[in-house]
């Protein structure tokens, strides 16, 4: 037998065997969704570029709203339309209630001991229940309302004083301090970051966390390359984790030693009680690590998301002075000019509510939501979705789908007003064309608080001030570029000069 004949027969035999063993196994199952061809070993990872939500949006224009990609050896499914998203997050939500393994969860989030990355199950449920009861329920939100209001007032006063001196305000920074102080008083009973420097340091830590969490780390997808840490992500994660850990240790220590007595019913005191004899956390006693992991989630997921949304809102309104004026007229008629707007006013402000929705539509703060993973294989729209596939829901792309949104890139809050094309759309995971908080079982745990903070901070800044751009910048040239990260930062922070527009007494009321 010639060697050539041997080679040919081996190839033919192997092909037949492969078809029998593997191809025929898929007989009866559906094809994978369409998607672009990837590179050897890395698959489609190199195609993600620096802004993956935008790249995936562009790729979906060619392959459709249900795509299959390969990141290294991991199957990845991308949903880019409201219909497809609802198939995953509503019809098949039970299958997609876990998050895929990733280095961020391991190296920053205490090895999955937090809530965001906890496996779907009783421990995750118990953590969500504690937060729902003590932070996010209607009663808890009402109990903490005076705290939020006080922090918003103190932001207004600070901005007022800067405005009187003709100074420009970094809006992302001002709203971040406000969101953080309101949240930290409710969670750890302490206004930790009220004093400038620490606040900017912590914001930088949160932004770094979001940047690192937004990197598609090659080692997560090509296991053989993990040890090399090609992008240096894991090294940075470990360093960052240490900084967070020291910070959370100091918070717990301050409470135990009585340095921080808290403000009464804050979450930290509830959690520390679970550690005592009478503790009844359903999943056994809470360790310090459990508490730190939860604090990490709340302080990171709950601050920059809200403050950056307000920053985008102000940027859009500065670019659209007619809309800003309409919102101010509505606020003046409901609130007047002698006091600062309160949360109780919000339901009476339909124009303002429509603006909020339009901002969340164009600038969802988590553009690719948080990834989910298929616990089982399933079939969606006639396509096979493999077990263990990672699901990315491109909420940024869904909210710009021209099949659903007329003139999708235009800032037009009127679409959410009575008579508009989306007059009844809500933001809370029911209308899949607008899901900035995600949807289904793992929908954002802090949605109720996040919405309130975004609304009360932006309503205050719109009502209490007119805004001018510094250094001869004109509104039509305002840079609206997005920066890279898990959350949607502005590439260029918004800096603007406030001009007080209420009676002085309104700002004096602010403490
Ligand atoms: C503008 C404000 C916010 C936005 C747009 C937002 C968005 C999101 C999104 C898209 C998810 C993933 C949902 C999914 O998988 O379907 C999420 C999860 C989460 N968010 Fe938010 N969020 C905001 C504010 C907050 C606040 C204020 C907190 C807490 C203080 C918070 C805590 C969480 C937690 C703990 C999760 C994980 C839930 C789980 O895995 O069960 N978020 N958020």
UniProtKB/TrEMBL annotation:
It is an enzyme of class 1 (oxidoreductase). The keyword rRNA-binding does not apply. Keywords: Heme, Iron, Membrane, Metal-binding, Monooxygenase, NADP, Oxidoreductase, Transmembrane, Transmembrane helix. It is found in: Membrane. It comes from the Eukaryota. It comes from Carex littledalei. One of its GO terms (cellular component) is membrane. Its main location: membrane. Pathway: Secondary metabolite biosynthesis; terpenoid biosynthesis. Its cofactor is heme. InterPro entries: Cyt_P450, Cyt_P450_CS, Cyt_P450_E_grp-I, Cyt_P450_sf. Pfam families: p450. It catalyses: (6E,10E)-geranyllinalool + reduced [NADPH--hemoprotein reductase] + O2 = (3E,7E)-4,8,12-trimethyltrideca 1,3,7,11-tetraene + but-3-en-2-one + oxidized [NADPH--hemoprotein reductase] + 2 H2O + H(+). Belongs to the cytochrome P450 family. It is a single-pass membrane protein. GO terms for molecular function: heme binding; iron ion binding; monooxygenase activity; oxidoreductase activity, acting on paired donors, with incorporation or reduction of molecular oxygen; terpene synthase activity. GO terms for biological process: response to herbivore; terpenoid biosynthetic process. Heme binds at residue 444. The keyword Secreted does not apply. This is trimethyltridecatetraene synthase. Its EC number is 1.14.14.58.
